[in-house]
């Protein structure tokens, strides 16, 4: 496990300044399309800038998954890089709070392109779920509604199969690979300023660091984003989420990877996370900022899901009260420019989305890959990397190439919650004097559309996600 090192404020490779902050400019909003291309041999090269030019210096605000993956990729490119994280222990706590992270095939392929050894460690530590039955089921009856094939699309394209991994373990692997000399703990970026030759990150303690580029990877409550575009309220999804981790091995563990149980205005997600543990999430539609009495989460969950199938009730009962956590679910509206000048965003700082497809971490990893490819092109172009125009153009190109895929996933995650609003629990349609009432209910247009989208469109969308369509890693064929 990586130790949480508290690093010195400055070292010989950094510039610390004390200068006034003139404020940051806002960027205009534009709509873009996406495509990503790059080669493994290109990405893993460790060439320095030719002709003795100054190496590109990248400052990263945020030491979560996105910030660490970008730092690892930048390190392999030979760039100077520094990560500023306000509290690594809080990131670890958030990991426990949010549970394991799902890594789809496209995200795992990106990690392989960045660092094969690190990717191997991650896949060894994770639990493969994509090779089993996964899909949607009715919450009351437990019967399968639709199943997803997460394996075939990956195998056909030579990609790793979907898996889950503990966030804390993933963070440890990444910190060890990036190195403690790059990750600076207890360092919160609260502002920045830019001039024609550099961007300066301003920390909470007043220290300032110069770089060529600043990347905000500081999550949904991003300070970098606020300084770029002004304060904006996050959108409450209308759902609160209880999460639990239990030492319980159900009898179906070798057959089912994960299952989403559906109900009206509530749903329940259960996944094998390896090592004899099951992780679950219980979503319920209600006003934000509600609270539970002490030791009352489990009791309330059994009230909310008490008439559901045994698979759901058993997981709740087998989970100790202290292992049940609760948080409200927020996202933000899509914005179509993520930066200005020498500053850009990635991951939840740029496009926070609801966790319905478990894609927040995967999208951040893909962002890192696209961004490092664009920066690598800049470094190899022969241009003076200190020129603000060249850097700004490179960052806007990264944003443009990510926009279509991100906006599609963001919209789909919101749509999934809307479909749950109209889902009707399992109903028997046996002949009888009142059967016409059930028939009329199921033929309501909104219910019909929601069921069709869930049952037929969602599997195709997941195939698109798994295979990385709109985000192509162009591999070189072996001789």
Automatic annotation (TrEMBL):
Native species: Quercus lobata
Name of this chain's protein: FAD-binding domain-containing protein
Pfam families documented for this protein: FAD_binding_3
A molecular function GO annotation: FAD binding
InterPro entries named in the record: FAD-bd (IPR002938), FAD/NAD-bd_sf (IPR036188)
Domain named FAD-binding: residues: 56-380
């Amino acid at each position: 496990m990586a130790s949480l090192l508290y690093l010195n404020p400055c070292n010989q490779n950094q510039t610390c300044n004390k200068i006034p902050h003139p404020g940051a400019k806002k960027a205009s909003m534009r709509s873009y399309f996406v495509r990503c291309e790059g080669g493994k041999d290109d990405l893993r090269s460790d060439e320095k800038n030719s002709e003795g030019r100054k190496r590109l210096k990248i400052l990263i605000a945020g030491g979560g998954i996105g910030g660490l993956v970008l730092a690892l990729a930048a390190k392999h490119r030979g760039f100077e890089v520094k990560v500023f994280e306000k509290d690594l222990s809080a990131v670890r706590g958030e990991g426990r709070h949010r549970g394991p992270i799902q890594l789809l095939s496209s995200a795992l392929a990106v990690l392989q392109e960045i660092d094969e050894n690190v990717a191997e460690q991650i896949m060894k530590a994770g639990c493969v779920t994509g090779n089993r039955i996964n899909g949607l089921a009715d919450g009351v009856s437990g019967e399968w509604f639709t199943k997803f094939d997460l394996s075939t699309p990956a195998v056909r394209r030579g990609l790793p199969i979907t898996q889950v991994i503990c966030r804390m373990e993933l963070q440890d692997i990444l910190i060890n690979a990036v190195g403690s000399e790059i990750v600076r703990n207890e360092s919160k970026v609260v502002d920045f300023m830019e001039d024609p030759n550099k961007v300066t990150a301003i920390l909470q303690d007043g220290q300032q660091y110069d770089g060529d580029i600043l990347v905000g990877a500081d999550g949904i409550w991003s300070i970098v984003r606020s300084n770029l575009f002004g304060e904006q309220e996050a959108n409450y999804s209308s759902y609160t989420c209880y999460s639990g981790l239990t030492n319980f091995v159900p009898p179906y563990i070798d057959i089912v990877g994960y299952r989403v149980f559906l109900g009206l205005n509530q749903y329940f997600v259960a996944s094998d996370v390896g090592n004899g543990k099951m992780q679950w999430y219980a979503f319920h539609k209600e006003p934000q900022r509600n609270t539970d009495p002490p030791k009352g989460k489990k009791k309330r969950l059994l009230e909310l899901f008490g008439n559901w199938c045994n698979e759901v009730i058993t997981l709740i009962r087998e989970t100790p009260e202290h292992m049940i956590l609760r948080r409200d679910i927020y996202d933000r509206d899509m914005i179509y420019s993520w930066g200005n000048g020498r500053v850009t965003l990635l991951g939840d700082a740029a496009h926070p989305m609801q966790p319905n497809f478990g894609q927040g971490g995967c999208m951040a990893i893909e962002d890192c890959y696209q961004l490092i490819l664009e920066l690598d092109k800049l470094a190899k172009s022969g241009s003076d990397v200190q020129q603000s125009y060249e850097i700004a153009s490179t960052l806007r190109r990264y944003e443009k190439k990510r926009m279509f895929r991100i906006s599609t996933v963001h919209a789909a995650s919101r749509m999934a919650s809307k479909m749950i609003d109209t889902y009707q629990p399992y109903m028997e349609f046996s002949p009888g004097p009142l059967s016409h009432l059930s028939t009329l209910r199921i033929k309501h247009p909104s219910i019909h559309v929601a069921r069709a989208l869930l049952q037929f469109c969602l599997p195709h969308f997941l195939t698109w996600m798994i295979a990385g369509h709109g985000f192509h890693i162009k591999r070189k064929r072996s001789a």
